[in-house]
Amino acid sequence: MARRTVRTAADHVPDSTDVAELRAAAKTCQGCDLYRDATQTVFGAGDPHARVMLVGEQPGDVEDRRGEPFVGPAGGVLERALADADIDRRHTYVTNAVKHFKFTPAERGKRRLHKTPGQTEIVACRPWLVAELAAVRPLVLVCLGATAAKAVLGPEFRVSRQRGQVLPAPGALAEAEDRERSAAGSSAGAGPAVVATIHPSAVLRARDRDDMYAGLVDDLRVVARELA
After folding, report:
1. Alpha-carbon distances, residue 26 vs 46, 59, 159, 176 (angstroms)
2. Is residue 147 part of a domain?
3. 58, 98 contact by CB (below 8 A)
4. Residue 215 is inside which H or E element, if any?
5. Which of 29, 83, 198, 199 has the fewest CB atoms nearer than 10 Å to its CB?
6. Is the pTM of this model over 0.85?
7. What's the CA gap between 192 and 77, in Å, rounded?
8. 3-state SS assignment for residue 191
9. Where is this region: Disordered (predicted)?
10. How many secondary structure helices (H) and strands (E) does the chain include?
């Protein structure tokens, strides 16, 4: 029986460590079927040489329309939490594990409803995440929510069990960053440290918003200590 070929974005990713070149190439990515319904690709944004890179799940309704990550309600929560954790957002790079908005169509005039990306879509989009990591070369990689954590740390990872812990970057992600550090004349280490926490949108959905928000800030303070 012939083995099924897994479709990914790999053929669309240029051999480049320039974030602007990667962003331009991602505009025409058809590595999975999400591009068919999304308004546009929403690539990462921020400091291309940031010491901390934050990875969310996917763009939301506002991000899909504007073409920028974390500019909707969840982005407002993230910006406030970063400030409370003494991390300057201007010196961060923010992106998503999946670059197209997956949604359930809404009634006329209403906001489209977010739909969680499947493992096939996470795997398909992972080459972009690997390329971004190799380009930015952060010291710390922050996974915001379960989808981002599974994209980086594997499908068995559970944020509820290991949130706020400093973990080593796995396999391909560590190797990608180390190759670029060596090419740039920097000493290779073991890739970035990885810290997983909740997605800022979880704060907006929670009944106990204050407690959820405080937990997010506490996890980001772990990141701040790694950057010190």
Report:
1. 16, 14, 28, 19
2. yes
3. yes
4. helix 209-227
5. 83
6. yes
7. 24
8. coil
9. 170-189
10. 9, 8
**Amino acid sitting at position 17:** T
Beta-strand pair 52-56/140-144: parallel
Distance, in Å, from the CA atom of 117 to the CA atom of 57, rounded to the nearest integer, reads 8
Residue 82 zone, left/alpha/beta (φ > 0; ψ -120 to 50; rest) = alpha
Q: pLDDT of 167-224, one tens digit each?
A: 998 866 666 555 655 555 554 556 899 999 999 999 999 999 999 999 999 999 999 9
What percent of the chain clears pLDDT 90, i.e. is strictly above it?
A: 80
pLDDT at 189: 57
Point out which residues pair with 156 in neighbouring strands.
none
Task: Look up the CATH number of the domain holding residue 55.
Answer: 3.40.470.10
Side-chain-facing half-sphere of 119: CA atoms under 13 Å:
6
d(CA 55, CA 163): 14
Q: Is residue 4 part of a domain?
A: no
Residue that has been written with the tokens 């790999």 in this structure = 10
Beta strands in the chain (DSSP E): 45-46, 52-56, 92-96, 103-104, 113-114, 140-144, 167-168, 193-197
**In terms of residue numbers, what domain contains 189?**
10-227
**Position 64 in a domain:** yes
DSSP assignment, residue 140?
Answer: E
